[in-house]
Amino acid sequence: MKWTLQAGLLLALTASPALAQAGAAPAADAPWSVRMARSLIKRHPVVSSKWSYTNGVALLALRRVGLYTGDPSYLEYVKRNMDGFVTPDGQIRTYDASEFQLDAINQGRLLFPLYVRTGDARYREAAFTLRDQLRKQPRTADGGFWHKTIYPQQMWLDGLYMAEPFYAQFARYFDEPADYDDVAKQFLVAARHMRDPATGLLYHGWDAVHEQKWADPETGLSPNFWGRAMGWWAMALVDVLDYFPRNHPDRAELERLLRQTAEAVARVQDPATGLWYQVLDQPNRAGNYLEASASSMFVYALAKGVHQGILDPKYLGVAERGYDGILKNLIRVEPDGTVTLTHINEVSGLGGRPYRSGSFDYYVHAPVVENDYKGTGAFIMASLELDR
User: Is 25 in a helix, a strand, or coil?
Assistant: First the structure.
């Protein structure tokens, strides 16, 4: 299946002048969003052989570049990659509903515009498949989604981004207004248990039954504020608010959470570079570093929150400083004109095998890579919000 998917999409790319154009070396005078988008496509004619949340970050970003520029090659790239996963009868290749992974939901956000644009019922069928997972998703006692079946009774901040924007979109596109109550509940449960009142930051994970080795025995919380976890949380809020009804009784609380998040994130911005650290509140500890994906996510969320009219305009200045810091410290232009984003934490989690403790040492020693979708996708979205 892996070979068939990649080979088929590579053949489609070869046959498509528009896609070849999108994957051409980016011009030095193009906006940074376009430069990174073209670099991403040039490096990855096929996003991946497996349905995944990282694909979702990249494809959502590329779709927005297509809408921003009016260049259809980006939308064609998105469609061809999505078509590699969605079968003629609306099944999703490589997706396993029995795993109950919230991560598996995020790529589904691309299904809605494809269905609207084409009217092809297979995209609708695939969206309903993912919605059915949420309907059956295991929950904590107070209604929070487990992150995955293999992580019982655990909420991770990552999961808010993976599931809730899709969930809110589904409610809007398919007229299920009661779903908004559940969308809001996920944020409210997470904030109630995971937000630190002293800093305003949220811990990466919460074990509702306080049984995990990484969990504080009194609170169930993981021990640190991981940058990208807070980035997922911030992006989840602004993206959900695009779809959340203005007259919903919980909207004001979601907006309040976004304002609290902006205040907390601004407080831990590095004053010298404008960037954010891998472990947000411990800048002076040996081994901590300025991390690209979290920095890009915060720039995106802060700028978008201002543009939505929710955040004070002063946060646009915070976003601008962060963006300038990314360009000065984390971007490298290669000899062929492609753009590289450096210092991206490849992956971090909690528990599992090999065991992940959530300690400071664990986060700062996790692999660091370049051009990971979680960074490049967020950078593209940040660039679009700031119209660079």
Answer: coil
